[in-house]
Amino acid sequence: MNTIHEFLNTTLGITAENQIKIFISLFVILFLWIIQLLILRFVWRQVKDVKVRYQWKRSLSVTVPFIGILLVGGVWLSAFKQFGAFLGLMAAGFAIALKDPLTNLAGWLFILFRKPFVVGDRIQIGEHAGDVIDIRLFQFTMLEIGNWVDADQSTGRMIHLPNGKVFSESQANYSTGFEYIWNEIPVLVTFESNWTKTKKILQGIVTNHADHLSGAAEKEIFEASKSYMIYYKNLNPIVYTNVKDSGVQLTLRYLCNPRKRRGSENEIWEEVLTQFEKHKDIELAYPTTRFYKNGE
After folding, report:
1. In whole numbers, what is the pLDDT of the chain averaged over residues?
2. Of 35, 41, 56, 236, which residue has the fewest beta carbons closer than 10 angstroms?
3. Dist. CA 65–CA 56, nearest whole Å
């Protein structure tokens, strides 16, 4: 041991006092790391709920480093006092050189306390949309939806975004406050079709599939109005009428869960096609070309 002390002192210029502090610091870091591993192993064996496991892991990943900084900082506090001016200049240099990491750290604090989104929320930030599956000190991770996949279905890709994005990009949250979205399905029928009967059929279909959500949505809006200026006069499903080049467009507008948009469209379209087969005076429209000869 004396040989090691002599080597560190003469070759690296580390005094005996600082050698002890380094040893204590390494011991504290190793001890806290082992404690964290043991706690996580116990949780992994006893808890099967994925969400609870994640919360334990995230809590420990924040708490253990914080305790480590306090303990190690206490060991080196006297040394820091001796180099106050030097540390001040070094901190200023670090602030300039590490601008982006510090911005991401500030973003993490903003996400933690302001909660624009939490793990499990479906959000869109800038051009990226997905379900938030992890939030860390410098970045958060989303399971991507959309892109080349229709109707907000998952692509299977994970997107890692820096936390600083919350300061520079607009954010849309599908889950917080009002947990429903308005979805619209346009149905185009020919001009020759009985559009009034078609509209009644479509109104019955969309009411059957979505009317039960109106009551739940109304309660959520009431709760959300305590924090946000949210107001809807009519939450019931409705069918709107419009005229397009190829026929009469009847648009079904209804509330649905963001994660069930494609499933609801599938069920509604299947029933629409089934009902249209029963009526000879209803035909779906598509672009057509007609020729007219003078005298015929």
Report:
1. 81
2. 41
3. 14
